[in-house]
Specification:
By secondary structure, the protein is of the alpha+beta class. It contains 4 helices and 19 strands.
Length: 328
């Protein structure tokens, strides 16, 4: 009787420790692969535990840096039940900081002082199927100017097999931000609070690495990004865009989008100081011609093509703004 009781316990114990060793080895292999691809990945210690009912990996002071982006955290905890190790709960404990630096552009820092949480779902083959992250109480800093953000959600999914050609998506990304408070000096016509911003896009074909050689090959082979939804709810402005992004021969973004804009007159008032007097007058006339009473309660909505070409942003035939040069 004692053997009948002890044998299953001993077998489970051996199996748990083998699973824990597999988790530790898998993390070390992933770190080595990222380093081999040119990323900087280090940490202050890795511990695997949670016996008997949990597989838990704790990463102290995780740090990862790639071209133009760097993440530093206080602690990352990943947990999964031993009977379902492919579904992993993530806890970002303590302050988390993401920094983005682009040559010729002000630095952007995103700080979550209270961390965040998420979930990662892996396939048995070891590839990531789905990732969902949520952070609250953040602060975005652009050139050192802080902007509070109430909540940020990030999601990503990828297929089980690498896409064959550029007819299928190799990566789908979703972003949404709620309650963004802009600094003093925001356009008076639009106000300081951006209630919500959303983005859903699909990278067609195998996603390239963010470096010139990989991006150039992907672009020459017909790689594009399909923007399914880019939405902004900001004061009287409500805008929804969709279309296609690509790269030109100099690896600069170009786009062909369609926009539906509510509150266009307020937007024009906001950007009017950036325009010549005759351009503003022409823009107001064009907006009046394009507006249709298709919004709620007959509110006028402007439907217009939005293009990015030769580092300039156009709404219809009007050149609205210059675009900064992207350095990969």
């Amino acid at each position: 009787m004692a053997l009948l009781v002890l044998l299953p316990v001993a077998a489970y114990t051996v199996w748990w420790w083998q699973a824990a060793r597999a988790v530790e080895n898998g993390l070390n292999v992933w770190i080595a692969d990222q380093r081999a691809n040119g990323a900087v990945v280090d940490h202050g210690g890795l511990a695997v535990g949670g016996f008997p009912l949990t597989l838990r990996a704790v990463l102290e002071r995780p740090h990862m840096a790639t071209r133009g982006a760097e993440w530093q955290g206080t602690r990352l905890v990943a947990e999964a039940p031993p009977w379902n190790p492919t579904t992993v709960a993530l806890a970002f404990q303590g302050e988390q900081r993401l920094s983005v630096v682009q040559a010729g552009q002000p630095p952007v820092d995103l700080v979550a002082p209270d961390g965040g949480r998420g979930e990662a779902v892996w396939r048995l083959s070891g590839t990531l199927e789905r990732l969902a992250l949520r952070f609250t109480g953040l602060t975005a800093q652009v050139a050192g100017v802080p902007m509070p953000v109430a909540a940020l959600d990030v999601g990503a999914t990828q297929p089980g097999q690498p896409p064959d050609g550029h007819g299928t998506a190799g990566l789908t990304v979703t972003l949404s931000a709620d309650g963004l408070t802009l600094p003093d000096g925001a356009p008076v016509a639009l106000g300081r609070e951006v209630r919500r911003a959303e983005l859903t896009l699909r990278v067609m074909g195998a996603p390239p690495r963010p470096e010139p050689a990989s991006l150039s090959a992907w672009s020459r082979d017909g790689g594009t990004v399909e923007v399914d939804r880019l939405a902004l709810d900001w004061g009287p402005l409500g805008a929804v865009l969709s279309g296609t992004l690509a790269l030109d021969a100099q690896l600069q973004p170009q786009a062909a989008l369609t926009a539906e804009v509510r509150g266009a007159p307020a937007v024009l008032d906001a950007v009017k100081p950036l325009m010549r007097p005759n351009e503003a007058a022409i823009a107001r006339t064009v907006l009046t011609m394009l507006a249709r009473p298709t919004g709620p309660n007959g509110e006028p909505v402007v439907t217009a093509p939005v293009t990015v070409q030769d580092r300039a942003l156009f709404v219809g035939p009007l050149r609205v703004a210059a675009m900064p040069r992207v350095v990969w």
